[in-house]
C-alpha cells in the first residue's frame, strides 16, 4: 500500500485524519513534510522553499503568541514578523476562537471556525500557523486541507501537527531563528 501523503487539497468535505493513515508526529529534532518524518533542518528548508516561492504567503499568529508577554513570546513574535517581512508575507491574526461568521472581515482576521473563507478571500497559497492551541490548529488544518489548495505549515510549541502539510515541533526562538536562516539561504539560491 502506498504511503499516505499530506498534500494540499482540496481533499473533500471530510478529509481523513492523517493519523488514521499512519502519519506519526515527529520526534524531538524532527519535523514533518507531507506526512513523513524528516530532520528539523530539512523541514525548515522545505518550509522556507514554500514561503519564498509562494504568491501570497500568510502567517496566522494565534492567542498563544498574540497575548503572551513573556520575553520568549515577545522574541518569537519579533522573529515571526522578521520572517514574514523577509518573504513578503501577510500577517492575519487569529486573536481568539469565538465564531465570527458572517461578521468577519477576512482581509483583517481569520475566522477560526471557517479558515477556508479567509484563505479563499485572500487567495493564500501558503499559510503558517503559530501560537494556536493544538485542538484549534488540528480543526483548522483539516478544514483547510479539505476545501482549499493552500499549503499549510504548523509551527508548534509542542509535538507538531500531522494534519499540516509541513510542521516543526518545539518551535522556540532557536528554531524560528533557524527557519529565518533557512529562508535567507533559499533566497540566496541554496545552501
Strand arrangement within the widest β-sheet reads 2-1-7-6-5-3-4
CATH superfamily: TPP-binding domain
Cα(first) to Cα(last) distance is 35 Å
In N-to-C order, the SSE pattern is: EEHEHHEHEHEEH
Q: Which residues form runs of ≥5 with pLDDT under 50?
A: none
How much of the sequence lies in strands comes to 5-15%
Query: What is the number of helical segments per DSSP (H or I, 4+ residues)?
Result: 6
Tell me the structural class.
Answer: alpha/beta
* Number of DSSP E strands: 7
Q: Into which percent range does the helicity of residues fall?
A: 25-40%
Largest sheet: 7 strands, mixed
Morphology call: globular
**Overall pLDDT, averaged?**
91
CATH hierarchy class name: Alpha Beta
Radius of gyration: 15 Å
Total number of domains: 1
What's the CATH topology label? Rossmann fold
Structure description:
The structure is a single chain. With 191 residues, the protein is of the alpha/beta class. The protein has one domain (36-187): 3-Layer(aba) Sandwich (Rossmann fold), CATH 3.40.50. The chain is built from six helices and seven strands, in the order ββαβααβαβαββα. The protein has helices at residues 40-53, 63-66, 71-87, 115-122, 134-147, 173-187; strands at 30-33, 36-39, 57-61, 90-91, 126-130, 151-155, 166-168. Strands 2-1-7-6-5-3-4 form a seven-stranded mixed beta sheet, sandwiched between helices. The longest helix is centred in the middle third of the chain and has 17 residues, at 71-87. It is globular and about 45 Å long. The termini are far apart. The relative contact order is 0.21. The mean pLDDT is 91.
